[in-house]
Specification:
By secondary structure, this protein is α/β, with parallel strands linked by helices. The protein is 34% helix and 23% strand. Bound molecules: adenosine-5'-diphosphate and zinc ion (ZN) (2 copies). The site of one zinc ion has 7 residues, from loops.
Length: 727
């Protein structure tokens, strides 16, 4: 029996690289294996660690070996240990941070071992004796008791006693008296709180599948019979992809497999969760960032025990401990939120592919606007038509050059006719706040964040100017602090101002709703979307949040206010993102019985991305995009790694970046930089970009260089960060 456990301590320190050997006392030997989470003594502290391997013996002498203090109840399934370590390796992070992604909630880096008790609630159910009592005249019942029993008989699953007063007009005490007569049983049940996903959009219970949906499903079922495959469901907006996901999950479950369903953001796209919960009930576990630690833990355990077989959640759901994984679904696979922002900067779509490959599961990614990467890599299944056969809405590109107002006359006219017909519109402007920046008209002073080299954005409602990078805030200036002038100019427009202008322009003929990070933070996304859905007509104005997969049948107009802001973003993915944004917004329009249309305001109506989007030609766009990427050596024809150094001190940040440049040797690729980035959160930053054909080699070279430089004098007071496959 293995007596040595190799343990990776869950610490955040980059320098500590395990695994470290621990000797298992006899009592632990049967219960510890790969994936066990242990409390271990470590450098005079007690910390948690994950067992990554077992061994018969150690290279260290016996007296140097310590014993674990405790074995935690829940551990990590062995395949997930490998997955966590793989992520650490691929994204140039540490084993501890990779493992923290797969450990049970509450045991990540820096956490202490705490368990949480499940909540319980009492439920009343009618007994057979109760049913006979209702049917016979022999048993004496008051009218209220009879009413309670009738109510319970209509709810064979039971009624929560706390709600019985409202639902069947019976108090808890009255139910207890019926329980005393054995006409009712009351039992305590474990409560699983599922985040309240408001059902937005029209929910059809179980529609008959269209021919395209059935054909897609048959291909997926066939793949499920054969093990691993990488499938891309390319379905136009409104083609009923969710219904295919549901069918695919059903097929997987029939084969005894578990399923992971990944969604970009549950708050923005609640309908996938709602539909899965409606169809699969308790077999769905939800892993949502807004769950309390206790709820998270419960959901995690239900999956690990096999009580739940479908995990639904955002990117981190890719690490869910689903048993016997057979299918991984990635909804809206083009969405940038699949990329994690902090270390490890993993791409959940890549992790999903890896996990599906290792566990012989089928990967099913879906989108109306697939990425060039997945287009090239996956086998495609098409849903070319909307479910109801309605055409995709016509898209007009209107030229804004020479226009002085926020709304093109064509846009104003279209909004007026939406108002006249009592319909709904969605207006997208990818910038929040009132104005992007302020300047003094006498001396030219610009309002800049003291911590970051960016302008402060005016927010009228909060009467402040604020930095969108570090959160720094100031009161709205009335005078220039430099020259005391009172004439301060506001430049550019964001969603807050647009909301105001729309109200003015529409003069009350349409109600205006705003959805952006500001209103979402104040009121909540679901609430804003719920109000918009409940209204008989109106305009929803906001940032790209408004273009996500919403399904409102009465929206007949979509407007993009400033397509150029996304298009001119200095990034090789800018065109792809613009194409997706316009196509996705178009997808919100005309989903019901009435025809929809889309207007895109732009200064460059000839732009490739916009022309293809106007023709609803995703495959045409991706074909050209792939050619362009190949010509310039962009992904998927190369791998990009970005390295950053950051320091309060400009010279240190630069010197560290220079040292990295010298330390890294790239084969099969090239290095650009170090280039200065704008100061952020008080830190001076430099960036190096590596483009390479050999991803593994480049990641290793980068890791070794960072270890070298961070341990040297050049690395003092400098933070290093690495982003592999940046988005
Ligand atoms: P997508 O994700 O492809 O944009 P959805 O899955 O949101 O499309 O489906 C669009 C609408 O069509 C939804 O309201 C859905 O309930 C409905 N729907 C899907 N499949 C069918 C079908 N076979 N018959 C009738 N309605 C369907
Ligand atoms: Zn001034
Ligand atoms: Zn700032």
């Amino acid at each position: 029996m293995s007596a040595i456990a190799k343990v990776e301590p869950l610490t955040t320190a980059r320098a500590l690289r395990g695994p470290f050997d621990y000797r298992l006392p006899e009592a632990m030997q049967g219960s510890v294996g790969v994936g066990s989470v242990l409390l271990v003594p470590f450098a005079r502290r007690k910390i948690l660690g994950v067992v990554t391997a077992m061994a018969e013996s150690s290279d260290l002498p016996d007296e140097k070996l310590a014993e674990p203090l405790k074995v935690l109840d829940s551990g990590v399934p062995a395949p997930l240990v490998d997955l966590g370590l793989w992520v650490a390796e691929q994204y140039c992070s540490t084993p501890a941070r990779g493992l923290a992604l797969v450990t049970p909630p509450g045991t990540g880096t820096g956490a202490s071992a705490k368990s949480s008790k499940p909540k319980t609630a009492f439920y009343a159910t009618i007994t057979d004796a109760g049913k006979s009592a209702l049917a016979s005249d022999e048993v004496r019942l008051t009218d209220l008791q009879r009413q309670a029993l009738v109510g319970l008989a209509a709810n064979p699953e039971g009624i929560a006693t706390a709600k019985a007063e409202n639902s069947i007009g019976s108090s808890i005490a009255a139910l207890r008296r019926l329980e005393g007569r054995e006409l009712v049983v009351i039992d305590a049940r474990e409560q699983r709180r599922v985040p309240t996903a408001t059902a937005i959009g029209n929910l059809v219970e179980r529609p008959e599948l269209t021919a395209d949906q059935s054909a897609a499903l048959a291909q997926i079922a066939d793949a499920l019979d054969h093990g691993h495959e990488d499938l891309l469901l390319h379905g136009v907006t409104g083609s009923g992809k969710t219904e295919v996901y549901l069918g695919a999950a059903e097929a997987a479950i029939e084969r005894g497999s578990g399923v992971i369903v990944m969604v970009p953001e549950i708050a923005l796209t609640p309908q996938v969760l709602t539909r899965f919960s409606a169809r699969f009930k308790d077999r769905v576990a939800v892993l949502h960032s807004q769950l309390s630690p206790g709820e998270r833990h419960d959901e995690w355990l239900r999956l690990q025990r096999g009580e739940a077989t479908i995990a639904v959640g955002p990117r981190s759901a890719v690490f869910a401990p689903v048993k016997n994984l057979g299918l991984v679904i990635v909804d809206e696979e083009h969405d940038a939120s699949y990329k994690q922002d902090g270390d490890p900067r993993y791409d959940a779509r890549e992790v999903a592919l890896r996990r599906a490959f290792v566990e012989r599961a089928v990967l099913l990614s879906g989108s109306a606007t697939p990425r060039a990467e997945s287009w090239q890599r996956s086998r495609r299944i098409k849903l070319p038509l909307r479910v109801d056969g309605s055409p995709l809405p016509p898209v007009s590109l209107v030229d804004m050059s020479g226009q002085r107002t926020a709304l093109h006359p064509q846009t104003s006219a279209a909004l007026a006719s939406v108002a006249a017909r009592g319909e709904k519109a969605i207006v997208l402007l990818n910038r929040r706040g009132w104005s992007n920046y302020l300047t003094c008209q006498s001396c030219g002073r610009a309002w800049i964040c003291p911590n970051c080299d960016v302008t402060l954005v005016l927010h009228m409602q909060r009467s402040e100017v604020s930095c969108h990078h570090c959160g720094h805030r100031e009161r709205v200036p009335e005078h220039c602090p430099d020259c005391d002038s009172a004439s301060i100019a506001r430049h550019g427009a964001g969603t807050e101002r647009l909301e105001h202008e729309l109200r003015d322009a529409l003069g009350g003929s349409l109600e205006v709703f705003r959805l952006d990070a500001d209103t979402a933070g104040r009121e909540g996304v679901a609430s804003v979307l719920g109000r918009f859905e409940a209204a008989t007509s109106g305009v929803l104005v906001g940032t790209q949040m408004v273009a996500k997969g919403h399904d409102f049948p009465d929206v007949t107009l979509g407007v993009v206010i400033d397509a150029d802001s996304t298009l001119n973003f200095p990034d090789f993915r800018a065109e792809e993102r613009t194409f997706a944004l316009v196509a996705q917004l178009a997808g919100r329009s005309g989903r019901g019985s009435r025809e929809g249309k889309v207007i895109v305001q732009t200064a460059s109506p000839d732009a490739r991305a916009l022309r293809f989007a106007a023709n609803h030609d995703a495959s045409g766009f991706v074909h050209e995009e792939l050619q362009r990427r190949e010509a310039f050596g962009y992904p998927p024809f190369s791998h990009i790694i970005k390295l950053q150094t950051a320091s309060l001190d400009h010279t240190r940040a630069q010197a560290a970046a220079d040292a990295l440049m010298r330390a890294i040797e790239v084969h099969d690729g090239r290095m650009i930089g170090p280039a200065p980035l704008f100061k952020r959160k008080g830190l001076e930053r430099f960036q190096i970009e590596i483009k390479s054909l050999d991803r593994g080699g480049a990641v290793t070279a980068v890791r070794e260089a960072i270890e070298l430089v961070s341990a040297s004098a050049a690395g003092r007071e400098v933070k290093f960060s690495v982003d592999v496959d940046p988005q």
